[in-house]
Amino acid sequence: MPELPEVEVVRRGLADHVTGRRVRDVEVLHPRSVRRQAGGGAELVERLTGQRLRAVRRRGKYLWVELGDDAPEAALLAHLGMSGQLLVQPADRPDEKHLRIRVRFDPSEEHADRGRDELRFVDQRTFGGLTVTDVTGADALPVPVAHIGRDPMDPVFDAEAAVGGLRRRRTGLKRALLDQTLVSGIGNIYADESLWRAKLHYERPTATLTRPEGRRLLTAAREVMDEALAAGGTSFDALYVDVHGDSGYFDRALAVYGQEDRPCPRCGTPVRRAPFMNRSSYWCPTCQPRPRRRHP
DNA sequence: AGACTGACCTGAACGC
DNA sequence: TGCGTTCAGGTCAGTC
A263 φ, ψ to 5°? Predict the structure, then answer.
């Protein structure tokens, strides 16, 4: 569900409300939410209890909180999957229906957010999860994050290298955008919105992409995600919310995603939808014509 | 090595 | 009203 802008909204909320707090205890209510932890819930509890939460970082759709009293020694890594939420709640707030993991902070320590003493991982579909992992390298990346690409909001993102990478693939453009190893953070919504802005069809063969087209696409991706972030992210329903449970409103600015049969904001042609990778693709057939099959 | 297909879940919306 | 089908912001293991 959440893509880069939604995850960044959550990151900012956590940075504001949990940095500096110490974990008093941890309760794992669903085993699937800790399935990435080799030692299961017991290991997560063991490695998290007593730790101090430090900087909150993000790459693509992965989010993590550095742990340790001095340098980061480990990280609490979160992926929200399709329906995950991280909420900062008072301990006396009733449990959410899909509460999967509860992290309780030490309520006695002096802290601006004393009184909101729980971090809750809520996840209807359980595709997401939390893990405590080792960190690696000079930039202290969690091990599972080390293999994914930088995202277009990363100050060190290398757009020229990413364009080169796209052109070296032998697949369709949208499939390549959704593969997190080349460029991370883009999911189904922002892939369609980026392609619409760049006037490129989702099945355009990556091998035929020109460098200027590739630059245009990645610039469009960064711009649309910047705008979505400024609007607090995209929420169609109550599944995507920030740490306070509030929705973003970028859904009102979507040009094509979810807009089947509605006029393209640029040319008025009805937006089309087609099945794609067990979900949907939306595009404007005028602005983004289907690529002509190459002659054999 | 790289490309592609399901499987993994819960719940809402829809058609009959 | 129910009961089946389809669809949903994502990965990942397994196959060719």
Answer: -70, 140
In angstroms, the Cα distances linking A135 to A12, A146, A187, A211 are: 21, 9, 25, 35
pLDDT beyond 50 at A296: no
Confidence of residue A240 (pLDDT cuts 50, 70, 90): confident
| A295 confidence band (pLDDT: 50, 70, 90) | very low
Judged against a pLDDT cut of 80, whether residue A293 lies above it is answered with no
Domain region containing A139: 4-145
The total domain count for chain A is 2
In a domain, A292, yes or no: no
Protein-to-nucleotide distance from the CA of A164 to the C1' of B1, whole angstroms = 18
Active site positions of A, annotated: 2-3, 61, 279
Six-digit token pair at A28?
Answer: 């794992």
Kindly list the distances between the CA atom of residue A133 and the CA atoms of A1, A48, A100, A254, in Å, as whole numbers in the listed order.
Answer: 23, 10, 19, 36
Q: What is the CATH number of the domain that holds A34?
A: 3.20.190.10
